[in-house]
Amino acid sequence: MAEFNIAVVSGDGIGPEVTAEAVNVLKKIGEKFNHIFNFKYVLAGGCAIDEFGVCLPEETLEICKQSDSVLLGAVGGPKWDNVENKNRPEKALLGLRDGLGLFTNLRPATMYKALANASPLKPEIVEDGLDIMIVRELTGGIYFGDRGYRQGKYGEEAYDTEAYSKKEIERIARNAFDVAMQRNKNLVSVDKANVLESSRLWRKTVDEISKEYPEVKVSHMYVDNASMQLVRNPKQFDVILTSNMFGDILSDEASMITGSIGLLPSASIGDGRLGMYEPIHGSAPDIAGQNKANPIATILSVAMMLKYSFKLDKEAKAIEDAVISVLEKGYRTPDIMSEGMILVGTKEMGKVIADEINM
Ligand code: NAD
């Protein structure tokens, strides 16, 4: 029997609703596979501003650091839109990623056969589903580089800097190759090496690390081509490894291909076991408190937690299989509802998935 401590940052809007269902699913996994999951609830985001005046209280970060993993709902909402920039709810996410050393973002873009008609792409391009994993560098590159204003050739100008150290590229590349080893062993590294010096170091370093993983087939693609290939023939991809900004853009493109924002999970991991797992969607203030949110993205986020942080592959698969099964049985929350299907709310969707695990 194994025991795991999980910090739950439910957050704002639909965050508490969807995390509640994911916690119930984990409890079911615990019962079925004989594990103990302990949950500690902490505040971050708008609710923390209301309670403590700061978006990321030190106590929250400390408890997250001491946990085996973090489950996050979503933060933010119109109530806090006018809060000063450095204390906006979304800053809590950056503070958590940075404070926990989570430099790798894993974003699967999975499309289930049962939902093929939700994709904006032609059916023949996505039939039989899609399964891509985007591995995005999360704590370096242009979002963290030197920036500011200065006098340039045409007067005042603003600048941002893309900089990557070899060490940063090595560690994200190793994480991406490890992920590829757990999948179909096919990795495409995306850069802009025809123009950017930082991309040339990226490409050279990925090639060096690839020697440690002889089983993984590696290739390189320019980011402009990659964005085109994702809509032309997305099935060619297994693992995509890329930088912070390119990953930000490509992962949104890939998620759209699959059809619904309410279905996709994500993981942020570092060197060790601790990771932060969250749906890719936000706090959806427009549907908060109405039992309308789709909890599947958050439930699949805990499946990623089981797989990547706790190495419980069998248990993770039990959750994924349960989700596929309820979708095939026709259960739908409003965001993915179509004619002839069974309309359910957040709580009911969580319950049918948890019940499916028991079968
Ligand atoms: P959003 O993802 O919250 O919502 C976009 C649309 O998708 C809305 O119509 C919403 O109802 C719908 N939606 C989102 N999740 C859904 C779900 N699980 N089930 C059904 N429908 C769902 O994005 P937004 O409206 O741009 O942002 C709302 C707030 O969330 C903002 O304050 C934003 O800053 C914040 N946000 C937080 C995170 C995060 O915590 N990781 C990420 C993105 C946005």
Indicate the low-confidence ranges by residue numbers. none
Radius of gyration: 20 Å
The backbone outline, from C-alpha atoms, is globular
Strand order across the largest sheet: 2-1-3-12-11-4-5-10-8-9
Mean pLDDT across all amino acids:
94
What binds here, in terms of ligands, is: nicotinamide-adenine-dinucleotide
Which range best describes the helical content: under 10%, 10-25%, 25-40%, 40-55%, 55-70% or over 70%? 40-55%
Order of helices and strands: EHEHHEHEHEEEHEHEHEHEEHHEEH
Query: Which strand-content bin applies to the residues?
Result: 15-25%
Total E-strand runs? 14
Through-space gap between termini: 21 Å
- SS class: alpha/beta
Largest sheet: 10 strands, mixed
- Counting DSSP H or I runs of 4 or more residues, the number of helices is 12
Give structural notes.
- Its cofactor is Mn(2+); Mg(2+).
- It is found in: Cytoplasm.
- Its EC number is 1.1.1.85.
- This is 3-isopropylmalate dehydrogenase.
- It holds the Pfam family Iso_dh.
- This protein has 359 residues and is an alpha/beta fold.
- 41% of the residues lie in helices and 23% in strands.
- Strands 2-1-3-12-11-4-5-10-8-9 form a ten-stranded mixed beta sheet, sandwiched between helices.
- A hairpin with a 5-residue loop joins strand 11 and strand 12.
- Helix 1 crosses helix 10, helix 6 packs across helix 7 and helix 10 runs antiparallel to helix 11.
- The longest helix has 19 residues.
- It is globular.
- The two termini are 21 Å apart.
- The mean pLDDT is 94.
- Nicotinamide-adenine-dinucleotide binds next to loops.
